[in-house]
Records
---
Amino acid sequence: MICGLLAGLCGGLVAAGFGKLTGEPAIDEAIAYEERHEGAPGRSDLPAGHQDEPLVSRGVQSGAGLFTASLILGLSMGGLFALAFALLYGRVGRVSPATTALWLAGAAFLVLFLVPFLKYPANPPAVGDPEKINERTLVFLTMVAISVLAAVAALRVRAGLLGRATSATATLAGLGLYGALVLGAGIAMPTVDEVPPDFPATTLWDFRIASLVMQLVLWGVLGGVFAATARRVMAGRPIFTIRKSTPEMEST
């Protein structure tokens, strides 16, 4: 668990730094677009220049808010990652702890983010009806739940086939089942398309790519740090090694 929390903390910190550099410019452009359209028909119930002040300033949102949210997300995912690792290690293939951690991080990125993201990609400010945020959140979380359940079903199918087929065949069967389930769910789930016709396509693209890569960085760093630390712990060594000073070093 300590390895997972440490890995999640590192992943959240690096992801926040990446988001600050790459995602914030697109958010600023989206906010500028929203401000240009304040008071336009269908855009706001308030006249231009009379919108309520936000509860949290833009500076706090892009600074302390971004890092706080990323660190909390990283710690949460790191704790869950450690539990999943403990559950799966030695039960899905005979590989080393580091290899298991890296594969698990890649699978988590795919199942928890990439597949739901392909159906319901992230949107910057000024995109979407604020009154429908609960509806959008519900369909996104539903897609996440379907992806997780499909992954569990795929693992069970793979485990059931291992005694009657080769490991490669069982793995392909599990992947095929997962792909079929999430593809069917993606087709059946309602479509949410609230992007204004005149919204800058480049801004939307930059924001979604930054969101995608930010998650990739989070899970990549989390998996890498966990792989390095868990390998040391499972070998009976401490996570960190502190060198003790010798008389020669002290005299120097």
---
Amino acid sequence: MSLTLYTHPLASFCWKVLIALYENGTPFEQRLVDLGSPEASAEFRQLWPIARMPVLRDTARNQVLPETSVIIEYLALHYPGPERLVPADPDAALQVRLKDRFYDLYVSEPMQKIVTDRIRPEGRHDPHGVEQARALLRTAYDLIEQDMADGRRWATGDAFTLADCAALPALYYAHKVEPFRHSHPAAGAYLDRLMQRPSVIRVLAEAEPYFKFFPET
């Protein structure tokens, strides 16, 4: 097996790549990285000095790839499966990439700001930054609600794509820190559809034993 994905079980960006792998039944080894272990951290930093997950290693092609969108596009190029997560049509592909960036930058990133602030040491919290993150999330929710209110099933239409791989972890965790189901019902219904996807069910089941470590408050 040439593909190894270095992950953390609670990391939203790791979920994004796992969903893509499970959608296409791509054979790979998943290696959990404990950055709290000096040995594991040093080993991972040799692979990718930035030390952010996920990272895909492909021994068959002698490649090490960080960054979720790049990983998924790489898989589509070199390990394609039945689900085309990036459309062949250039204009459609551009829309998918736009939504992918939207969910990463305007939902995942502000969500992570709120979560990481919860685990900062006493006296090192950033209430202004957290409120800015919440405001950005609320704006993003409004835009998602507009998109989903037009009757589309997935992020860009009828096909499940890279953008939906990004949307699930972003919305799943964002709802925990800035709930939106009641205020944005179409966005909430979209999250429900995502959570019924077999690849997503598998990802959530694998993460479930670790949810007790998520900083709820």
---
Amino acid sequence: MKYLIAIMFLLMIGLAQASLGTFKQYECVNIIVPLNTTNVNITNIATPSPNSQIILTNQAMTRNENLFNYSFCSTNKTGIYTYGFCNIEGDCYSNSFEINPIGKISTSILNNPYLLILGLLGLILVLFGAVKGIPWFGFIGSIMFLLLGVYTMIYGFDNGTDLYTRGVAITLLGMGFIFLFTSSYEWLSEDKEEEGDIED
């Protein structure tokens, strides 16, 4: 059993390393195959799971010496696309590429400073406004939370969007709206009290 697990692990590493790369959503992907043959066809390209569909079958690749190229432009879904190709001798292979909103993978949240800046700034402003009783600090902090929620909805965490990151984004937006309405109410109440004091 342990040998089977080791073999599966090595195969998964090989498949991960064989990936064509990560590309930007809605932009064309050049599928390049280096084979010493006369003819290569893309046998199929499948969209990402869970609703995986074959969207292209049996397309000839363009030859340039020993490189074959096919430009694939139906990249409206994010996720991992799989594709197969065969040469004229009947040897077939498969590979994959990933599509995400920005066309690259960030290995750390530190590579995404927008999340850190908006999150920390929003939290500091909301806490400072609550502790010091300054509603307009909370108002500005709530705007930061709303921006963070919108950014997370579009780009997700670590530049990958899924249902989890959308859920986090909706939570951040909800918190932003709660802070916004609370700080706005306190700010307006404070202004009315000041106006009442001036009239007295």
